[in-house]
């Protein structure tokens, strides 16, 4: 039955499509292959979500080798949630991509972008579907290596420097992660996540297991760009082609966060089991990110760098939810994982439309753009309002649950800091809005016209989703609550 093969097809479809794109140097054909593979991955992930909600977690044994001796793919509520998010964002971005790529990447390298994008998609989906900690490392490297290439494809020579910086930091992160995996294997003799979850409590107090957790949290923290392990992210987002920035901002850090949740709670059973003050460390780092990154964003002159530092602040909110070690806190983290993907997807794609017409995303050059490109700037404003956390947007739902989680712990000061940090987002979003709507356009902008519909429509699909899931958040909240309960119960 085809349903029984869906977990492996989730990874194999984009993986095989990537191989096909690599040997077919025809940009239109490779785009069609990439789009078809993305839509197929979305259809598979939606089917998996329905099956999980109706029948519970799905287990798939590769090569019919039963877990824990063989590699297991395991899909539960949280992984299905992430699979749908990644494949949906990939599909929307692929619709947007052709015109933007023609502007930002040399024509003879577009086929390479499509191959790397599909490899990246396969890696991210594999990270979400696998139930094996070493297999997660393999998929992590597949997604990372393809990311380095995609970033370096930009025409700006600084993209190569950004890609190299990311490569160095990513390699360090991957090394830390695999060292931690090796330590866990040495103590338990297994790599299966569920099996590790049952065996680790017996040796939880040993120095080896404590060190393993420390190595893995640092390694995944580098991939997630938790402050102060974030130095690769601003340049990577700023100098990569806009389509790449949008895809990485909307998916890559979200899957890294998923991996951190899965390892810390499903494998280790939460920080309390090991006895490390991981929650306290994450709380401090989250607050530093919320304020430090937002403050730096205020002074940026390049809109992509502004959004990059904004992403660091938003990652801080997600990490803050983890630090509460409560159902409401984890629910807030998972909700914001979904919501931030919608926000940043809409905002970066809007910048792609602006770059198409202006050839720049310097804020000072956007004077009067609200009149010349009203649809594009309208979508940017919606995404910006969501980033701030205005009611009727998804950002408000995220902040609401974070504040609830803080108040449940009696942390009134943290709740106040969440509100205060949101005011910093008002400042940097307003800088763009003020220039675009309240400054007169220069003479050379008078002939400027709106971006083509094939680009504006995907932007508004994401902008509309920011409002739709802000007004009707019940489905997102239920899925996040279910996933949080499973994580806290050690489920997976």
Name its key features:
mainly alpha, 20 helices, about 75% helix, two-stranded antiparallel sheet, about 500 residues
- Averaged pLDDT: 89
Task: Note poorly predicted spans.
Answer: none
Shape: globular
What is the tally of helical segments? 20
Spatial arrangement of strands, main beta sheet = 1-2
Structural class: mainly alpha
Order of helices and strands: HHEEHHHHHHHHHHHHHHHHHH
Biggest sheet, in brief? 2 strands, antiparallel
Distance between the termini: 24 Å
Residues in helix, % = over 70%
Query: Over all CA atoms, what is the radius of gyration?
Result: 21 Å
- Per DSSP E runs of 2 or more residues, the count of β-strands stands at 2
**Proportion of strand residues:** under 5%
Q: What can you see in these coordinates?
A:
The protein is mainly alpha-helical. It has a domain of 216 residues. It is built from 20 helices and 2 strands. It has a two-stranded antiparallel sheet with strand order 1-2. Helix 4 packs antiparallel against helix 5 and helix 9 runs antiparallel to helix 13. The model has no long low-confidence stretch (mean pLDDT 89).
Question: What is this structure's SSE topology?
Answer:
Layout: H1 6-22, H2 27-55, E1 58-61, E2 72-75, H3 77-104, H4 110-129, H5 133-152, H6 158-188, H7 193-199, H8 207-224, H9 233-239, H10 242-267, H11 271-274, H12 278-298, H13 303-323, H14 327-358, H15 369-372, H16 374-388, H17 394-408, H18 412-438, H19 453-471, H20 474-488
Antiparallel strand pairs: 1-2
Helix pairs in contact: 1-2, 1-4, 2-3, 2-4, 3-4, 3-10, 3-14, 3-19, 4-5, 4-10, 5-6, 5-10, 6-8, 6-9, 8-10, 9-10, 9-13, 10-13, 10-14, 12-13, 12-18, 13-14, 13-18, 14-16, 14-17, 14-19, 14-20, 16-18, 16-19, 17-18, 17-19
């Amino acid at each position: 039955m085809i349903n029984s093969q869906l977990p492996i097809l989730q990874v194999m479809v984009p993986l095989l499509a990537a191989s096909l794109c690599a040997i077919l140097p025809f940009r239109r054909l490779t785009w069609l292959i990439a789009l078809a593979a993305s839509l197929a991955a979305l259809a598979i992930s939606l089917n998996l979500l329905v099956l999980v909600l109706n029948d519970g977690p799905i287990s798939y044994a590769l090569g019919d080798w039963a877990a824990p001796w063989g590699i297991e793919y395991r899909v539960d509520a949280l992984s299905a949630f992430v699979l749908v998010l990644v494949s949906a964002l990939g599909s929307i971005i692929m619709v947007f991509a052709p015109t933007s790529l023609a502007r930002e990447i040399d024509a003879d390298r577009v086929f390479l972008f499509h191959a790397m994008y599909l490899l990246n998609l396969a890696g991210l989906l594999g990270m979400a579907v696998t139930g094996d900690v070493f297999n997660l490392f393999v998929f992590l490297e597949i997604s990372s290596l393809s990311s380095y290439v995609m970033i370096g494809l930009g025409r700006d020579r600084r993209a190569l420097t950004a890609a190299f910086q990311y490569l160095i930091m990513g390699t360090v992160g991957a090394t830390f992660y695999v060292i931690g995996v090796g330590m866990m294997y040495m103590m338990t003799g297994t790599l299966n996540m569920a099996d590790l979850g049952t065996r680790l409590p017996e040796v939880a107090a040993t120095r080896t297991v404590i060190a393993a957790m420390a190595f893995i949290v640092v390694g995944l923290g580098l991939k997630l760009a938790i402050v102060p392990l974030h130095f690769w992210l601003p340049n990577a987002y700023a100098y990569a082609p806009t389509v790449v920035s949008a895809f990485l901002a909307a998916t890559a850090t979200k899957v890294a966060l998923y991996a951190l949740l899965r390892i810390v709670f499903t494998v280790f059973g939460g920080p309390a089991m090991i006895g490390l003050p991981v929650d306290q460390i994450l709380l401090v780092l989250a607050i530093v990110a919320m304020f430090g990154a937002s403050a730096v964003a205020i002074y940026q002159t390049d809109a992509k760098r502004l959004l990059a530092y904004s992403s660091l602040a938003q990652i801080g909110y997600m990490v803050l939810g983890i630090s509460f070690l409560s159902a409401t806190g984890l629910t807030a983290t998972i909700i914001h994982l979904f919501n931030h993907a919608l926000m940043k997807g809409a905002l970066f794609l809007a910048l792609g439309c602006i770059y198409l017409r202006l050839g720049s995303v310097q804020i000072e050059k956007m004077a009067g753009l609200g009149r010349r490109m009203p649809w594009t700037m309208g979508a940017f404003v919606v995404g910006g309002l969501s980033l701030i956390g205005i009611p009727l947007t998804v950002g408000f739902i995220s902040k609401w649950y974070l504040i609830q989680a803080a108040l449940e712990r009696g942390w009134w000061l943290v709740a106040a800091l969440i509100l205060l940090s949101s005011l910093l987002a008002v400042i940097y979003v307003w800088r763009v809005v003020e220039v675009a709507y309240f400054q007169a356009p220069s003479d050379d902008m008078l002939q400027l016209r709106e971006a083509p519909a094939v680009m504006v429509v995907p932007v508004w699909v994401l902008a509309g989703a920011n409002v739709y899931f802000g007004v009707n958040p019940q489905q997102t909240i239920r899925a996040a609550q279910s996933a949080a309960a499973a994580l806290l119960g050690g489920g997976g």
